[in-house]
Amino acid sequence: MIKKLLLIICTIGLFVAAVQREQKYGTKPSSTQALADSVDAETGLALDPHFAIVKAQCTGCHSPKLILQHRFTRDEWLSKIRWMQRNHKLWDLGETEKTVLDYLAKHYAPNQTAYSRREALRNVKWYPLEK
Ligand code: HEC
Hints:
The chain is mostly helical. It has helices at 2-25, 30-36, 51-58, 65-68, 74-87, 96-107. Helix content is 53%, strand content 0%. Helix 3 packs across helix 6. The site of heme C has 16 residues, from helix 3, helix 4, helix 5 and helix 6. This is Cytochrome C. InterPro entries: Cyt_c-like_dom_sf.
């Protein structure tokens, strides 16, 4: 009986702690909130004036995640497009090719990290743990 009571009290305690934590920190981590403003909710692609063209040309066959996962230079993006045209029936992008490449090179270049992560710690002073 006592054990059951303790269990119930612990459960309530954990629940209250979780609710308080949520209130303190918010439900969403701030890093994704910051990203969410500039990213299309449906596709995850970066929002800019060329987004609609890229969405139309590049999300018909596969998930936009295939784009989001990669970081390429403009030339490398072009060779991916040529590769899809050779092997996967991607159509001639015509006049939109330049726009699509501009967009890809701007948002998905090698220097842009795929996942946001805090900056590495600097000037860390390590100390030996006491025994
Ligand atoms: C006609 C269909 C089609 C369209 C439209 C298309 N792709 Fe693809 N794409 C494919 C196929 C098929 C693959 C291979 C998928 C796999 O390996 O599972 C692929 C793979 C990829 C990959 C992964 C390449 C790799 O090295 O693994 C990227 C990146 C990519 N596409 C980007 C794009 C971009 C950017 C566009 C817009 C210009 C686009 N795709 C439009 C068919 C298409």
